[in-house]
Amino acid sequence: MFQKPELCRQSSLERLSRVRFSPQMLTNDAVKPLTPQEVEAAVHRYWEVSSGKKSAAQETFYSEIASVFTSSSRRLEPARLVLLRRRREYLESASIMTVNIGRIEIELLDPATGVAAYTIGLHVEHVAKPGALGEKDLQEHIDHARVTHVFQRADDGKLKIVHEHISAPQE
Amino acid sequence: MRAFWDLFAAKKPEQWQRYYADVATIFATSSKRPEPARLVVLRRQREYLSSAAKMRIEVGRVEVELLGPSCAVAAYLMRLHAEQIAKAAAVGHRVSEEHLENARVTQVFIRNADGDLRIVHEHISAPS
């Protein structure tokens, strides 16, 4: 785990090159400067889709290269892996999810990138977590789940999550 | 990023706090809302950067995503072992030691007009 630092991933360099050198590929939405209102709307849409258990729609929020720290993960994981797990445990199970979003702090980093930091009250019933003796029916309640979402506008103009960090405050 | 933690472990508060942008927000390990960096910096100075405190920090493999010509996000794990600190625990009493084995860290950087990297958002947490 504690090894020499890794240089930036090839995928991000490739994306930068594409944006820099092929502007004719971009749609009108893709060159529209990002606004705090747009980021805030994306956060609300994301949780509407998630609590509505729309797994296909939830997946479209993530960039292909997105990375995620979930509330319990002990390492950074690719979003595609986290999404598969969430689909099994939350979205395709009998779970009932309630999310209350708190005040969202938004910082725009450049015309295409913004970071949203906020807390949510997350209450889930009937989570299907795998256990040693089969699947367990659990509840999950986090009153002050802390969320960081880094959004970036994709070539098609849509906002995508490129990094997510969700955690519970330490007691 | 490594220079940032080296300065913190070496208790050089003036140089260390310069890494934060004026507008930076932070989720510290126990905070229940995003806080302004200037507030967290003051608290960390009081709790960790006193003359008696001793800290050992190990930064793991760092995943960096370049988001544009002047911004990037770094995500990594770190270990922190701190002794002789004066940290207020959530339950009210004070603790003199802190040991985080698998702290998860997200830091969002931007390059400012002077060409220096600054942290605009930081999220540190322990897995639940």
List keywords for this structure.
heterodimer; A: seven-stranded mixed β-sheet; 5 helices; disordered N terminus; B: alpha+beta; six-stranded mixed β-sheet; 3 helices; globular
Q: Can you walk through the features of this model?
A:
The complex is a heterodimer of chains A (171) and B (128). With 171 residues, chain A is an alpha+beta fold. Chain A has a single domain, classed as Nuclear Transport Factor 2, Chain: A (Roll). Chain A has five helices and seven strands. In chain A, strands 1, 2, 3, 4, 5, 6 and 7 form a seven-stranded mixed sheet that branches. In chain A, strand 4 and strand 5 (113-131) form a beta hairpin. The two termini of chain A are 26 Å apart. The model of chain A is unreliable at 1-24 (pLDDT under 50). Chain B is built from three helices and six strands. A six-stranded mixed sheet of chain B has the order 2-1-6-5-4-3, covered by helices on one side. Chain B is α+β, with helices and mostly antiparallel strands. The two termini of chain B are 25 Å apart. Chain B has one domain (2-125): Nuclear Transport Factor 2, Chain: A (Roll), CATH 3.10.450.50. The model of chain B has no long low-confidence stretch (mean pLDDT 91). Chain B has helices at 2-9, 13-17, 37-47; strands at residues 20-27, 35-36, 54-68, 71-88, 94-111, 117-125. Chains A and B meet through helix 1, strand 1, strand 4, strand 5 and strand 6 of A and strand 1, strand 3, strand 4, strand 5 and strand 6 of B.
* Estimated helix fraction of chain A: 25-40%
Total beta-strand segments of chain A: 7
CATH class call of chain B: Alpha Beta
Overall, the morphology of chain B is globular
Give me the secondary-structure category of chain B.
alpha+beta
- List how many beta strands of chain B DSSP finds: 6
Query: Which structural class do the helices and strands of chain A define?
Result: alpha+beta
What series of H and E elements makes up the topology of chain B? HHEEHEEEE
Contiguous uncertain segments of 5+ residues of chain B:
none
